[in-house]
Amino acid sequence: MMTRRTVLKTAAAAAAIGVTAGDAGAADSSKNPFGLVYRDAITSNEPGKVNIHPVTYKLGGLDIVANVYTPAGYSADKTYPAIVVAHPNGGVKEQVAGLYAQRLAGEGYIAITADAAYQGASGGQPRSVDKPQNRIEDIHGMADFITRYPGADAARLGLLGICGGGGYALSAAKTDKRFKSIATLSMFNSGRVRRNGFADSQLNTVQDRLRQVSQARAQEVAGGEILYSGDANLTDGQIAKLPFEMYRQGYAYYWTTHAHPNATFRYTTSSLLDLMRWDATDQIDLIDQPLLMIAGSKADSLCMTKDAFAKATGTRDKELFEIEGATHIETYWVPKYVDAAMGKLTPFFARTLPSGRT
Questions:
Q1: What is the pLDDT of residue 239?
Q2: What is the pTM (predicted TM-score) of this model?
Q3: Residue span of the structural domain in which 17 resides
Q4: Domain presence at residue 357
Q5: Does residue 310 fall inside a structural domain?
Q6: Which region, left, alpha or beta, applies to residue 74 given φ > 0 means left and ψ of -120 to 50 means alpha?
Q7: pLDDT at res. 238
Q8: Which of 76, 71, 78 is nearest to 51 (CA)?
Q9: Strands 62-70 and 110-114, bridge-based pairing
Q10: Cα–Cα dist 181/108, whole Å
Q11: Which residues have CB under 8 Å from 67's CB, separation 6+?
């Protein structure tokens, strides 16, 4: 786990994303019985309301820790459509993935979001391994679990991937036809960024970085120190000078306003051997299910959603929706932008997973 700088104050972080500290909805995970850090999170399970159910299941021999959200008035004797929600890179189920899972449950769906293997509260050693094949298998595993959950209708299964989880959702849905429809929010193509740098800003160093990554793998398997990438301890001034708004706002979100002790930017350097040869758009034409891709109109990651959308030629039922005025991170928590995203997700899943309420 990376060490967060205690000097990064909530007010300073909120200022970096243009809001007051109060507006940011800063949360302390220790004050929520379920560890949730998003605005209007569930604090107790009450009859007749959306409830949350912490669960653990096995996947590839590892313990996966997840939260299942059930609709108001849920009964195991009824049937409900279900939605798998995949969290962003470095995120955990208690942050934005939980927010959208709770909102979807409010619309009548059973929703599941799990911590990725080797991350969050889920098992796996060494910690913070971040390989595409693992993240994709996590999505298949959530589908395995939720389609056997009491009341879940396996014939009405949807998928929502957020940020890096969006890229992995596209990859999972290419072959997993249990998913009847797919949506992404602020999709982040982890392979492209790790390979080429954000906005293809590191193309001239690809080979040098690959050699460094190869050496990190060799050192790891020889029993040496496990090296990590993505670890950072930046000053406020350094954060302000980062060239991409997504990263500047990301520090505020993950380190302060919506911080969770299980969330980290950190990943094993050897993971890059897998990340740098992978791309979220590889064979994306295999997706023939309905596809909705949502991103902020001001997001500096918007180009990734547009690129994937153009390459998704296997489905005739697809839509790209831009949330006017939103940046990448703002789609995670700003109420009006979350409402805008839900305003598209709700009719999309209602249409593609019909008979949404029972």
A1: 83
A2: 0.93
A3: 10-352
A4: no
A5: yes
A6: beta
A7: 83
A8: 71
A9: antiparallel
A10: 16
A11: 34, 52, 53, 54, 55, 93, 94, 98, 101, 112, 113, 114
Q: Which residues pair with 229 in a beta bridge?
A: 267
288 and 259 Cβ atoms separated by less than 8 Å: no
In this structure, what token pair is assigned to residue 270?
A: 């050897």
Residue range 44-87, pLDDT digits in tens = 999 999 999 999 999 999 999 999 999 999 999 999 999 999 99
Residue 41 belongs to some domain of the structure: yes
C-alpha distances (whole Å) from 153 to each of 70, 111, 145, 177, 348 are 13, 12, 12, 14, 17
| Contact (CB, 8 A) for 299 and 4 | no
Which tokens go with 17? 């994303």
Which residues of the chain are under the pLDDT cut of 50?
1-17, 19-22, 356-358
DSSP 215: H
Helix and strand tally (H, E) in the chain? 11, 10
CATH number at residue 171: 3.40.50.1820
1 found inside a domain: no
The pLDDT of residue 230: 87
Residues 6 or more apart whose Cβ sits within 8 Å of residue 17: 24, 248, 249, 252, 253, 257, 327, 329, 330
> Furthest-apart CA pair in the chain: how many Å?
59
The pair of structure tokens assigned to 334 is 């700003």
3-state helix, strand and coil shares in percent for the chain, rounded to the nearest 5: 40, 20, 45
Who's near 24: CB < 8 A, 6+ residues apart? Answer: 10, 13, 14, 17, 252, 257, 333
Closest CA to 292 of 333, 334, 350, 358: 350
pLDDT digits (tens, 9 = 90+) for 114-123: 999 999 999 9
Q: How many domains does the chain have?
A: 1
Query: In the 8-state DSSP scheme, what is residue 45?
Result: -
- Which is it for strands 62-70 and 51-59: parallel, antiparallel or unpaired? antiparallel
Residue 11 has a pLDDT of 40
DSSP one-letter string for 57-96:
EEETTEEEEEEEEE-TT--TTS-EEEEEEEPPTT--TTSH
CA distance 185 to 341: 8
